[in-house]
Design brief:
The complex is a heterodimer of chains A (422) and B (98). By secondary structure, chain A is an alpha/beta fold. Chain A is 36% helix and 26% strand. Chain A is elongated. Chain B has 98 residues and is of the alpha+beta class. Classes of the chains: A alpha/beta (422), B alpha+beta (98).
Chain lengths: 422, 98
Amino acid sequence: MARLYEYQGKKLLRAAGVRIPAGAVARTPADAGKIAAEIGKPVAVKAQIWATARFKAGGIQFAATPEEAEAVAGRLLGAQIKDFGVEQVLVEEKLDIDHEYYVGVIVDDSHKVRAPVLIFAAEGGIDLEEVAAKSPEKIARLTVDIRHGVRAYHAYNLALGVGLGGELLFPISRAICGLYEVFRCYDARSAEINPLVLTKDGDLYAADCRISMDDASVARHPELGITFPRESDRPPTELERLAWQFEEQDYRGVSFFAQLVSDIREGGYIGYHAIGGGGALLAADTLTRHGLKLANFAETSGNPPASKVYRCAKATLSQPGIEGYCLMGAVIASQDQWHHAHGLVKAFREDLADRPGFPVLVLLAGNKEEESLQILREGLQDLPIRLEVYNREYIHQLEFVAARMKALVEEYRRSRKANTNV
Amino acid sequence: MYSFETRTGSISIDHIKCESCKSLACVKACSLYGAGILKVERGKPVLNVTAEEAKRRDTECLACELDCHFRGQQAIVISMPVAGLEEYRRVNRGHTAD
């Protein structure tokens, strides 16, 4: 899921009628000072990063004057907070908080629900799980009928359900309905306002928000400027950005590439490429249980062309420091596997001719299986690599296959060490 | 050099090398694994569709290059670039394990 930054989410919320604090984004300390001067009140300077608990991590700081705001922004911009580089800060009026609430929408995809679920809590500013554990009576839920959406009375019922009432009902209803509108219009997977702040003046503001888009819907919203639609707890690596190009531009089949380790400093890492999501995870678990470390995680399925498999393999092989390549097709795939075979052979022939002894293990099963294995054997016969190829008989013997991969990597490491010592 | 574009790359065939080819394995491979867009004309593989049609129909099966390598004259080079990848590898000091 692609995430929006707080300032992007707030812009959408404001357009949907939800009140948000006055403020703007700054990319330089001087701009932060100017924004603070325009606001004319004490401000909060908030690092725009995809991380939770920013306040505890020092990513949200307060400033009483424009000069202070400029100084705070100077400290935050360029800093690393929770592995994220801070490139922009949101400068907005500091709220005089009387109480904090929570409102969120998620997609509940369990087969009994399969609908958005609205959640409102009388306590906000902390994890919803914490509220649920301590005071479940302070949480109200509503499964939304997407044919009718969320009406004001739904929102009233949620607020009444946690014991609220009176003049608060209208602004709370506006916030809940506005959040749902953003959720629906922007094809979000989840959206939340936390905290929804009641100020001592009696006004209600969305003080912070988190909105995650459905990756498949990003193309419908170019106005959001999302360039890498995938949720992660860190920014994409350069290699992931390169691999994203062929995921994004080629609709044939599916490919996925994630770099699990950005800087390999010890031995035992392999490039991991799999076919089919479930089997991919199962096989990855088996490999790690055998002591292998996965430098990356690539996946190609859905009958991709050989060119896509080739590019995915090239990306996997591009990560410096890997000591083996493992393709786990731990399923009998209903796709012609010779496209995988051709893609792999081309990538290996281009990249492994100068890596003598490099371990390569391929488990491939599915349509045209025997022909595919023959393509692999013939296509790689003259490469100086440690190659082992397995067929459908081994998809239920992953322990054995993982042990073989481990043995190949250890053998390779020993031989390289011996050569280095000579 | 005879060349044409595919959907996301390009294929080049060295027709001089093809002159001594007896197998024409590329055309057979294209028919078996791909969209069957190659034919033999005066002993050499050429498109049996327009270049524009080839770009649309080619499935990028990559088979002609491999079969030409093992059964033909190593006359075919397929380019399926990933923009920026070579530069990434150069900056990251090659791609060998430490």
